[in-house]
Design goal:
Layout lengths: L2 H35 L6 E4 L1 E4 L1 E3 L9 E3 H13 L3 E2 L2 H10 L7 E8 L3 H13 L3 E5 L1 H8 L13 H8 L4 E5 L22 H23 L5 E3 L11 H7 L4 E3 L6 E4 L12 E2 L11
Parallel strand pairs: 2-6, 2-12, 3-4, 5-6, 6-7, 7-8, 9-10
Antiparallel strand pairs: 1-11
Helix pairs in contact: 2-4, 6-7
């Protein structure tokens, strides 16, 4: 091979090397761009939360806290058509604490009390539309259902086996609704602080109850719940419960005040006391806009 041929081959090798380096750099830039896109640039978002309880087969069984499967499907269609995307509370936490990306119009669907008809009527529709929901469990009721072989799935609560199955679907996240404080007496409404109760007494009662529910939910699902829904939306006006809940690992709390909440990136306090719209048969879903 002549000297000029060696020189030509050398230059060809240089050109090929430069091309490879350029291509690698381009891929690196694209990858970096994709990485950056995973960070949400919004400093604040508005999050509407819809609150459901019980579901029934048709409109004959509807009441203030029960809606039919058809009506629920109508809600899912409306949300889809309006461009809403259902998210989990855990995604909201990641947005606040890490700046994680959220869809342009997020919405949260919550089912309070943990009725078995959530699985019977609502869950198949969530699967159909690939939408997510949060079920807030009353632990003592799931305990009863788990030992009741005659339980009615129309009106009873989810048993722990069903909770485990739903948790594996990727469409359900579980929250706490207390273990056994979901009742109203002359002294206490739900998990609220009763009159004359000291701070230490209230902390002990709330801690004992919620820790028990946390442990049961974690055993069934494999995940420690970080969201809490106040029974009846009733909680201490002085917010004395907030630090108690934080100590127990809760990072999101839901009330029953009907409004859309503003969530601020980098401000964990904005995740406490989120409002929710109660879905009754007469509720106008356009209100969430």
């Amino acid at each position: 091979m002549k000297k000029k041929d060696y020189l030509l081959l050398f230059f060809l090798v240089l050109l090929m090397g430069a091309g490879i380096i350029s291509y690698a750099d381009s891929c690196s830039r694209k990858a970096a761009g994709r990485s950056l896109s995973l960070s949400d640039s919004r400093d604040e978002i508005d999050i509407p939360v819809l609150m459901y309880h019980s579901f029934c087969k048709d409109s004959s069984g509807e009441n203030e806290y029960t809606i039919s499967a058809d009506r629920f499907e109508g809600d899912l269609k409306w949300l889809r058509d309006k461009g809403y995307t259902t998210i989990f509370p855990s995604q909201l936490i990641s947005y606040v604490n890490e700046g994680a990306m959220l869809p342009s119009k997020p919405v949260i669907l919550t089912f309070d009390d943990g009725f078995a008809n959530n699985m019977l009527y609502a869950f198949p529709l969530l699967q159909k539309y690939n939408m997510k929901a949060v079920i807030a469990l009353i632990g003592s009721e799931s305990d009863k259902s788990s030992s009741d072989i005659y339980r009615n799935r129309e009106h009873g609560n989810l048993n722990w086996g069903e909770v485990a199955i739903l948790s594996q679907s990727g469409l359900i996240e579980f929250a706490s609704h207390t273990y056994d404080l979901h009742s109203i007496s002359q002294e206490r409404k739900g998990a609220d602080r009763k009159s004359g109760e000291s701070s230490d007494q209230y902390r002990n009662i709330l801690t004992e109850d919620l820790l028990k529910n946390q442990d049961l939910i974690e055993k069934a699902t494999g995940s420690f719940p970080t969201a809490f829904a106040w029974p009846y939306g009733s909680y201490p006006a002085d917010r004395i419960a907030d630090p108690i809940l934080r100590d127990l690992g809760f990072l999101v709390t839901f009330t029953s005040y009907q409004h859309t909440s503003g969530i601020t990136r980098g401000e964990p306090d904005s995740l406490f006391g989120l409002g929710r719209y109660l879905r009754t048969p007469s509720f106008d879903i356009e209100k969430i806009i």
